[in-house]
Amino acid sequence: MILLYLMAMWIGHARYLVIPLALAALFTTLADPMAIYDLSCQFSYVAVLAIALVLQWNGRDARENHVPQTFLAKLKNWGKQYVLVTLAVTVATLPLVAYYFNQVAWFGIFANAIVVPFVGFLVVPLGLGASILVLLGGLEHLPFAWVHQAIITVLTDVVEKMAAIPGVRLHVASPSMFAVAGFYCCLLIVLLSRNHIRRWMNLGVLTLCLVWWVWSPRHVGEENVVRVTFLDVGQGDATVIELPDQTILVDGGVAYERWDIGRMVVAPYLWDQGIRRIDHVIATHPQLDHVGGLPWIIKRFEVGHYWSNGARRSQAIFYRRLTGAVKEKGLKEQVASEGKEIISEGPCRLISLNPPLTEPTPSAQTRDHPSGGTNLNNRSVVLSLTCGAHSILLTADAEVEALNRLLDHPGVQSAAVVKIPHHGAKSSLNHQWIQQLRAKTAVVSAGKGNRYGHPAQTVLRAYRHMDIYRTDSDGAIVLSMDLNDGEQTIQRTTDRSPVLLNPGNYSLGREWKNVSRLWKNWSSNG
């Protein structure tokens, strides 16, 4: 972009900033057609395009009203132009930020005004100067690297402190592609139009778009639909239950220092569904792959109730992080033991079938529960969800011992959909229990290529009389149940992904299916 702009200056066409930008985008795409899908590429071109349009627009007005200016007038004009550029970049990148990060970071206007000058006048010149010295002097180390690093560290700390201010980021649902395209069309009309009435009309449209994105309403016309989503969280578990009047989150996947499933998978799904309140958060048992992502969710969403299996693991860092988040939000830990009705009113009933009432509740415990995997797994919270004619069984990591206890249980025999226990591990393979099941559909949550070999082939063979859906190969699995007519539909993430076409085996029907899938993706949120 810089090279083409300098060429435009050389031939006397510096005022037409959009043309060098368009040529740069063309050359980039020709060199790498996939670059258009790169997030940094999209942000860069949109931001520079916004700057180019503002400068061109401002320059046009200056040429039409050219009068000699004093130093103070020039300074005032520079300040106005700087504010306009900052505002334009922030507004122009809003749809991308909302689409990719589920945020409307309105405070970025002020943050950029502070950070950008330091970057432009200090970081970039120092970096370029040091690079030139390395090239010309054949140096092995970057000169003044400590100064450069110190400035970047200070700026990073400033940005992090700004980001920690309450309310600076509004979490929203990802807008559809059509909403993004409409937003940019209106924005271009505002920047290029000389008709003040049309400009204000389009500003009104832009404002309505932003209000709609910030509001992020729940899906309309689904008051009698129950949706159960088995999220693809890798090797772990996270299930979102959306009832007509309540939302339940069962487990939250794993979390490491730089990889938090709660932040990166669970929260974006909830925001895309327009969910800001979770009525019940259920931690089936204190293992990292099930509850690691819950602290981030509990801290940032409104939570009504928190449930656990009553086991404690005070020595585990992830467990202390979880209990700290629960206390920070003022929640009381409730034990979802056998027979406990978590939801007993409304069109649905959610009841716990496990763990048994054989151990004291957390308030009376004096020692941690044994941290052995089998002990914890057999005390997993097993849930039975019944909504009219629909029934689902969520088995968490229950192993053979726990499954033996559930033999002949009405909640097991009536389930039409069952979650295969323990990610399809052999330790949870109980043939007698499987024979008691009348379910026609089974779901297994496992990570692709996981080191445990889940789901085991012997387990899959034991459930082969059912329709099996897997998060490792199907992605997220959404089960929708209509409370009026009793219909049930299942949608996989892979159902929305285009299928690669083989020129040697071209199919017009498959091509049409790809078009239909793309249309569905573009017209819906996310």
Task: Describe the fold and architecture.
- With 526 residues, this protein is an alpha/beta fold.
- The protein folds into two domains: 2-214, no CATH class; 225-358 and 371-503, Ribonuclease Z/Hydroxyacylglutathione hydrolase-like (Metallo-beta-lactamase, Chain A).
- It has helices at residues 2-10, 18-31, 39-64, 71-92, 94-101, 108-137, 145-163, 177-192, 196-215, 261-272, 288-291, 294-300, 317-328, 373-378, 400-405, 410-413, 431-436, 457-462, 471-474, 508-523, and strands at residues 103-104, 170-171, 225-230, 239-242, 247-250, 277-282, 302-308, 333-335, 341-343, 348-354, 382-387, 390-394, 417-419, 441-444, 467-470, 477-482, 488-492.
- Strands 8-7-6-5-4-3-16-17 form an eight-stranded mixed beta sheet, covered by helices on one side. A seven-stranded mixed beta sheet has the order 9-10-11-12-13-14-15. Strands 1-2 form a two-stranded antiparallel sheet.
- Strand 7 (302-308), helix 13 and strand 8 (333-335) form a beta-alpha-beta unit.
- 31% of the residues are buried.
Task: Summarize the helices and strands and which ones pair or pack.
Elements: H1 2-10, H2 18-31, H3 39-64, H4 71-92, H5 94-101, E1 103-104, H6 108-137, H7 145-163, E2 170-171, H8 177-192, H9 196-215, E3 225-230, E4 239-242, E5 247-250, H10 261-272, E6 277-282, H11 288-291, H12 294-300, E7 302-308, H13 317-328, E8 333-335, E9 341-343, E10 348-354, H14 373-378, E11 382-387, E12 390-394, H15 400-405, H16 410-413, E13 417-419, H17 431-436, E14 441-444, H18 457-462, E15 467-470, H19 471-474, E16 477-482, E17 488-492, H20 508-523
Parallel strand pairs: 5-6, 6-7, 7-8, 12-13, 13-14, 14-15
Antiparallel strand pairs: 1-2, 3-4, 3-16, 4-5, 9-10, 10-11, 11-12, 16-17
